[in-house]
Design brief:
By secondary structure, the protein is of the alpha/beta class. It has eight helices and twelve strands. Strands 2-1-3-4-5 form a five-stranded parallel beta sheet, with helices on both faces. Strand 4, helix 4 and strand 5 form a beta-alpha-beta unit.
């Protein structure tokens, strides 16, 4: 494995622990301690994934996340000591692909990193299908989406939701089914987070009229067939 992970954590002990465990997984790891350094490094050499603590000096993690998301589709795993639902949704709305609350186990961190890397297209793109539904094209191998030939930049979780829906156009999926199929081990994640990701997905697809993603009341979501 030749993936590069950026760990943004201002607590040196926690940064060292996370970095050591991820290196044991075969990743190249760089650790930084403030939000400004995160942006500089990401712009200088794009890592494959960012582990981003919310509470950091200079620029907090949510602000950094918004800037990164505006500039790229780098997968972002947010670390937070806060467990309130609104705080979690604040990070997801800023563009984070996943979150992990402190204290966390290094094994869970490594598992979430592996899952995000799979979703982000860090694995081999060959022999993966391209799903075409009307004007929508979902290239599952290259992690690319196009509408009317126009490229759309999605986060890993937004792409995961769209991939699930596009694999079975017309079929209605519950939020729980979407969580399980798109995010795997994240079955305990609040189902309300699916709504937040779908809202962002619709905005990026310019889907105000639900031309693509449709709400099935009392059930969940489906992709128009």
């Amino acid at each position: 494995m030749h993936t590069e992970i950026l760990v943004a954590e201002d607590n040196p002990k926690q940064a060292d622990l996370a970095g050591a465990y991820l290196r044991r997984e075969g990743h190249r790891v760089t650790c930084v301690g403030d939000g400004g350094a995160v942006l500089e490094l990401c712009r200088d050499r794009r890592p494959d994934l960012v582990v981003l603590d919310v509470m950091m000096p200079k620029l907090d993690g949510v602000t950094v996340c918004r800037v990164l998301r505006a500039e790229s589709d780098i997968p972002i795993l947010m670390l937070t000591a806060r467990t309130a639902e609104d705080d979690i949704l604040r990070g997801l709305d800023a563009g984070a692909d996943d979150y992990l609350t402190k204290p966390y186990s290094p094994r869970e961190l490594a598992a979430r990193v592996r899952a995000l890397l799979r979703r982000s297209g860090a694995l081999r793109a060959q022999d993966q299908p391209v799903l075409r539904i009307g004007d929508l094209e979902v290239d599952t191998g290259r992690f690319e989406v196009r509408v009317d030939g126009r490229p759309i930049v999605l986060t890993a979780k937004e792409f995961g939701i769209l991939e699930v829906l596009a694999a079975a156009p017309g079929r209605a999926f519950t939020r729980g089914q979407i969580l399980e199929k798109a995010f795997g081990f994240d079955r305990y994640v609040l189902e309300r987070t699916v709504d937040a990701h779908v809202m962002n997905l619709r905005r990026k697809l310019d889907d105000d009229a639900s031309r693509f993603v449709q709400t099935v009341y009392g059930r969940g979501y489906r992709l128009a067939s």
